[in-house]
Amino acid sequence: MTFRAQHLLGIEPLAPAEITALLDRADRYVAFNRGAAKHADSLAGMTQVNMFFEPSTRTQASFELAGKRLGADVMNMAMRASSLNKGETLIDTAMTLNAMHPDLLVVRHPNSGAVDLLAQKVTCAVLNAGDGRHEHPTQALLDALTIRRAKGRLHRLTVAICGDIAHSRVARSNIWLLGKMENRIRLVGPPTLMPAAAAELGVEVTDDMRAGLADADVVMMLRLQRERMDGGFVPSEREYYHRFGLDSDKLAHAKPDAIVMHPGPMNRGVEIDGTLADDINRSVIQEQVEMGVAVRMAAMELLAENLRAARAEAAHG
Q1: pLDDT at position 229
Q2: Rounded distance, CA 91 to CA 222, Å?
Q3: pLDDT tens, 53-109?
Q4: Cα separation, 38 vs 101, whole angstroms
Q5: Residue 234: helix, strand or coil by DSSP?
Q6: Distance (Å, rounded) from C-alpha 24 to C-alpha 250?
Q7: Separation of alpha carbons 317 and 313, rounded Å
Q8: Is the dihedral of CA 294, 298, 304, 305 positive or negative?
Q9: Are 297 and 70 in contact (CB under 8 A)?
Q10: What is the structure's pLDDT at 232?
């Protein structure tokens, strides 16, 4: 068994072989999702609970669709209108959930480490759908699958990750994943949006888009996360676009076959030129959305297999 994890809390703990195993399985589900009959039964009889303490239409819909296509019973809990507003702690929530015997728990939370805490308190498999500024593992995995399918490989590529690095859990997960797969990573953005310890992550850091994009195979733009900013990180959106927004002039410094990515939702005309975002010859942004469902199907199926094996062992032990 190449994928041994009991939970998917982040990319950091995963070995390169586990990442490859998950992507290989997800690749099969891409073809499955394009077929006429999109229903499998590998999660039949299992219950998947989606707990989103932060709103996210795209990620929640993707996880819900993934679970339903694999035959799981899927329940969405509206956490903002829930008992947490009545003062119930995260541990109380975990105890309540345990009593319902779910098998897969998908959690997004505004605080870093909250998903990890829940995983320690429940008896099911937990998937991190984004926690604070910490990690967003399935986003990095779907980005990796998109890159691998577009480039034919996921190693020895030059990847420029551009924009609001400091507030981005997507950037953090991608840095871990792309680093494990032996890629050259450049972080590009204003110093105010660069984490203090960025250089210690084994990456190159620059505030010059043209230098950062030079000969890049992949250009990954990030969303300006206004909701996580408490102060004047950027002078104005117009100035930000002028210096750090992706347009055809800046992209010309990358390789001619470089692909353009964005985790969404996009601020057109701020992080990326709208025409470029829609350019089917350069942009793989729609493919990223498609890969998301396949990656989440693969992740939940692998965790479910490990969960069943652990339960069987416990029953016989």
Answers
A1: 46
A2: 33
A3: 888 889 999 999 999 999 999 999 877 655 555 667 888 888 888 999 999 999 999
A4: 27
A5: coil
A6: 33
A7: 6
A8: positive
A9: yes
A10: 59
How wide is the angle at C-alpha 271 spanned by C-alphas 269 and 272, nearest 5°?
Answer: 60
Q: Using CA atoms, how far apart are residues 56 and 109, in angstroms rounded to an integer?
A: 11
Q: Mind listing the pLDDT tens digit for each residue in 169-201? A: 999 999 999 999 999 999 999 998 998 888 788
Are residues 127 and 301 in contact, defined by beta-carbon separation less than 8 angstroms?
no
Provide the residue type at 93 as one letter. Answer: T
List the one residue out of 89, 129, 133, 91 whose CA is nearest residue 112: 133
What amino acid occupies position 70? L
Joined tokens for residue 102: 């779910």
Structure tokens at 244: 């750090």
| CB 218 within 8 Å of CB 158 | yes
- Is the torsion defined by CA of 153, 159, 164, 169 positive or negative? positive
With b for 16 or more beta-carbon neighbours within 10 A and e for fewer, the 264-293 pattern comes to: beebbebbbbeebbeeeebbbbebbbbbbb
CA atoms within 13 A on the CB side of 271: 24
* Each residue's pLDDT tens digit, 116-173: 999 999 999 999 999 999 999 999 999 999 999 999 999 999 999 999 999 899 999 9
- The model's pLDDT over 22-44, given as tens digits with 9 standing for 90+, comes to 999 999 999 999 999 999 999 99
Model pLDDT for residues 225-263, shown as the tens digit of each residue: 765 445 556 668 888 999 999 999 999 999 999 999 999
Alpha helices in the chain (DSSP H): 16-34, 57-69, 90-100, 114-121, 137-151, 169-180, 209-213, 237-244, 248-251, 274-277, 285-316
For residue 93, the model assigns a pLDDT of: 84
Return the amino acid letter for 220.
Answer: M
Partner residues linked to 109 by β-bridges: 131
pTM of the model: 0.95
Q: Which of 197, 173, 124 is nearest to 10 (CA)?
A: 173
